[in-house]
Sequence to fold (445 residues):
Amino acid sequence: MNPRLLRRPAVVVLPLTAALAITAVMGTAEAEPARHGSAARVVSTSTLPDIPLAGFSNGLLPGSVDDDRDVDLGGIGSDLYPAGRRGEYWTVTDRGPNGQIAVGKDKRRTFPVPGFDPAIVKIRAVGGRIQVLKSIPLTTASGAPVTGLPNQQGRDEAPYTYDASTPLAYNPDGLDTEGLVRDRDGSFWLVDEYGPSLVHVSARGRVLARHVPKGLNLAGADYPVIESLPSIFLKRKVNRGFEGLALMPDGDLVMALQSPLLNPDKATGEDSRSTRLVRFSPRKNRVTAEYAYRFDAVGEVEPGQTKTSELKISSVVALGGDRLLVQERTDKSARVYEVRLRRGADILGSPWDGTAAPTLEQLDDTTSAKAPFLAKRLVVDLNTVQGVPGKIEGIAVEGSSTLVLLNDNDFGMTDGPSAFDANGRLVDSDVETTLVRVRLDHPLR
Fold:
């Protein structure tokens, strides 16, 4: 890592486009074999230079960050969406630098730069460098930063300072932003893990509305909060809310729940391989469909991994018609599948949409055939492609047979007390924000 005095403001570059051929059928969740060989190769790699986080944040919202603790801009790989020109993309940061430190039997969630405000970042990948072209801070109705701090005591993790010694205040405006798309009118839609929620944002970053599950009772937010999502999503696992977001050709949005719901309880959710996709109509301002999605066994996604709770969906990409690209992953490995959102697979309003036993999350390999899980077809196992970084969260398609992938480097942070030195300065993980283009041996569209 370069000494801080040698760092210069950077610009981000990212080549990527959203599109991918997808076909799916309702029924068994067992993946059909790929139609082609699994040969794929990385054809280019670009990285984000060091950009001091205070300089980045204060350039958007002056005075928002007084000390970045030597943290650089990162976390922009939470999602990736084409920006119009070839090789340019919209990305979004997550809630900012955060980690965990064990204190006794508890794990405390730390926010070393609590003034950080999540931002939409437009990037371009040129050669081996990612350039930042434009940044848009997320703000409330009155123009204040939303911040990335948790919303509700008792529901969200309690926030602490970088060393886990001092509690921080909750913020009902806070957003843990993940998926992102840009609508035809220039506004943005984002998904958030806290609510979990769907957030409509103006072209300038102002929150226009936040759609949350019925019964969340989020009070005190400085923007409209609408309880338009099914109440079952109140059972989301902490830090595992909505992660992926796709804009369908008809203007509908599809949100992916990162991990199984804790339905009916935590033990069930931790061991489950069943998660959900939700279809939302901006025109009708409501959810119009829900789909059941079943993960592969964790050892198939990441050989040697045994913890089912490591499985996550991080990215979904709309293709044509009812086709959708779905990425399921652990922090080290990822697979890309295609599914089709057929009407017959809709579970909204059915017993599978609720808490009646057995719940969707309680189904095992034997009983899963009873539920209408989306059938899926393997596109590529990224674990077999040399040069693909870990923790891929942003995916798009370029041309007919190239995937563009962007990782989340967690702002260079690690968990534990050794994340910062005795002076409270970051001990960087040296994990870079990296964009790679992967050429497949067959067309995707």
About this structure: The two ends are 40 Å apart (CA to CA). The first helix runs from residue 53 to 60. The helical segments are 53-60, 266-271, 298-301. Confidence is low (pLDDT under 50) at residues 1-37.
